[in-house]
Design a protein that fits this description.
three-stranded antiparallel sheet; 9 strands; disordered N terminus
């Protein structure tokens, strides 16, 4: 079993075509487009060469070691996890605790994330740990970079995260691979991590105290997948606007519905932008001159298209902000203030912002699916298609009894729209 499915956003089986682009990590903020360039276009990552940044990372790892060796209680370093946090871990077992944490979380279920999805997750985790507040070693960040650049991709099951506690179980598959355990997708097939590493002159790392928890205790699976969903939604927005333009042209629709004055009077930026796209597509030369316009007000699926599509356009603006804050955050616990050597216990692993943003995104996208389904029905139904052939069949009259044109496509679009609408139950609750 190779773990591949049909859920890939931007790549097919095996290695992707490489670009010459290199994305710096640890030197300023990372954008959604940076992450997509790595996950979808084969860009590489490069850790910040600045010695001050590197020394800050090293000092974080040294600080964690000083703390636990001094017997100061640090959650997940020399204590148990969750409700067992009051249970101290004996000094002689502290260095075994990281791999024990990784192994007991190796119980994920569901499909295996696609290579582009896995790369997105790896980048999101690397960026978070490179903030320097998680107490991990520079060697760990370098190994995460190696997984990305050599495309040694952990086989991460999609199910097993609850979000409120971060992506513990899915991210454990990254920690396990770094330690030389479990399986990876590499050069077109699934193989043990221990087999893939030597092919690039790499060796497994012994995870230090705090490092397994630092990899696992965060929101990088949901955030990486959110970046890919954001990219899909941007495409759907432009595609939905273009399909609407085709529908207006095909039905000889009333172009006055996209007059810019309308959108000055209700100035949501997204709907004005979409109306502008449709207006530029629907030129005067696209009129079916032999078909008189019978309505001064078109059905909602044409007249309100900028308003429906505009919701997604405006939502993408604030959704981008939420995603990019999450990408560039230390979404871990506990965190380290390297200047004072203070451990900070909190809840930055909580995935509420990404979950809420994705709930909003899927609702906006589902409404577009519903909109486009209605447009298809207008085109197929002879009562509303303004003289177009029934079901858009192009056959000769004598063959009409056996030719149903695009009728099944209309049934299919209704089914797919229903699936989209069905999926809008909020996961964030």
């Amino acid at each position: 079993m190779n773990g591949r499915s049909n859920g890939s956003t931007c790549m097919t089986f095996g290695m992707k075509k490489r670009t010459n682009l290199t994305v710096p990590i640890g030197a300023g903020n990372t954008t959604i487009e940076d992450l997509i360039a790595i996950a979808c276009d084969g860009a590489r990552v490069r850790l910040n060469p600045n010695e001050e940044w590197r020394e800050n990372i090293r000092e974080g790892a040294r600080c964690v070691e000083r703390l636990w060796r001094s017997d100061k209680a640090v959650y997940g370093v020399n204590t148990g996890y969750g409700e067992s946090c009051e249970r101290p871990v004996p000094h002689e077992l502290v260095e075994e605790l990281p791999i024990a944490l990784v192994r007991f979380h190796g119980c994920g279920l569901g499909r295996i994330l696609e290579p582009d999805e896995t790369l997105a997750v790896l980048v999101a985790r690397l960026v978070s740990l490179a903030r320097g507040n998680s107490g991990v070693s520079l060697e760990l960040l370098e190994r995460l970079s190696d997984l990305i650049n050599y495309q040694i991709l952990p086989q991460i099951p999609a199910e097993g995260s609850v979000g409120a506690s971060g992506d513990l179980t899915p991210l454990s598959y990254i920690a396990a691979v770094i330690a030389g355990e479990r399986s990876v997708w590499h050069e077109g097939r699934v193989k043990p991590a221990s087999q893939a590493f030597p092919e690039h002159g790499l060796e497994p790392l012994r995870l230090r105290p705090k490092e397994a928890l630092a990899i696992m205790n965060g929101t990088s699976v949901m955030t990486g997948l959110a970046c890919l969903a954001f990219r899909k939604a941007e495409y759907i927005l432009r595609l939905g606007s273009r399909i609407t333009s085709f529908s207006v042209i095909g039905l000889d629709g009333n172009r006055e519905h996209y007059d810019p004055r309308i959108f000055i009077m209700k100035p949501h930026p997204g709907q004005a932008e979409v109306a502008g796209w449709i207006r530029s597509d629907v030129s005067p030369g696209s009129v079916r001159s032999d078909t008189p316009r019978s309505r001064f007000q078109e059905p909602y699926s044409l007249r309100c298209a900028p308003h429906v599509l505009g919701v997604l356009a405006d939502a993408l603006t604030w959704i981008r902000g939420m995603i990019e804050i999450e990408i560039n955050s230390s979404n871990d616990n506990p965190l380290l203030d390297t200047e004072t050597g203070t451990i900070l216990h909190g809840g930055n692993f909580y995935g509420g912002h990404i979950a809420f943003a994705m709930d909003a995104l899927k609702t906006a996208v589902a409404n577009i699916a519903d909109l486009l389904d209605r447009q298809v029905i207008l085109l197929l139904n002879q009562k509303t298609s303004r003289g177009l052939p029934e079901n858009l069949t192009g056959c000769s009259p004598e063959r009409l009894p056996i030719n149903h044109g695009f009728k099944a496509v209309g049934i299919g679009t209704s089914a797919w729209a229903a699936e989209a609408l069905k999926g809008t139950m909020p996961a964030s609750v």
